[in-house]
Here is the input.
Amino acid sequence: MAVQRILLYPNPILKRMCRTVERIDAEILQLVEDLVDTMEAGPGSVGVAAPQIGVSLRVCVVDVSNSRHGKDNNHGRLLMINPEIVASSGNAVMREGCMSVPDYTGDVERATEITLRFSEPDGTLREFVASGFEAVAIQHEMDHLDGLLFLDRISSLKTGLFRRKSYK
Here is the structure.
């Protein structure tokens, strides 16, 4: 259990497609713990993905339950191995930030409802529908697994990217 250093854009690891986890073993379980510790230590963080700490595997964690945007609509702490979105609907633009791009936020269009499937650390396959802020946070973290940052989803860097006043 350890807080890991967050890689910052333009580190090339952040732009790599992550490999599928073939087997959940002690190394993967440690990775999940490190992701949780790193998320909890991050200022206002609601999620973190393995490539953000330098590991190119399809593992991420999300927990919006302590966020004012997600506290009333969430599935608790999600420890996701090989997550995939199997359906999505709706769309909305929300302001997003990222620990790997600490000086900026941006307006990003995302699905407002997703059906998500993933393996939990104990190997259990889980599937459910997420909506609102939780769905956005999950999509943001899953983008990291595909080598995408929120910067890649901003339609206009001129009008949709904003310098962050403070990072807390």
